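Batch manifest, entry 17 of 40.
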Amino acid sequence: MSESIDTSAALVIEGLTAQGDKFRPSDWAERLCGVMSAFGADHHMQYSPYVQPVNLGGVICVQVDVRLEEIEPMAWRFLLNFARDNELRTHQANSSNVVVQASMRSAPEAKGLRA
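Output type: structure tokens
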């Protein structure tokens, strides 16, 4: 069964720091999503259906389905801590994948999100 991220309940980790600087290295999103990937039936690595790299308005981001918090709490905390430790901006996406106003707060402090 192929699942996709429910964008009505998705956390977006932006590739921008709280100071507005571009986060490096440039492939950070693919690396972070790679940590959550697994081999598929076709013997190729596939990103988790809950953690996907995305480009929103020219900004490299990682979109995380909030259902991950219930399915795999340690992975959820890892992603939130990554965002916090690197001072990355976070926000919640809406159902049409249009960016909602970005938060300048670190991930665990973002409204409604827990580490």
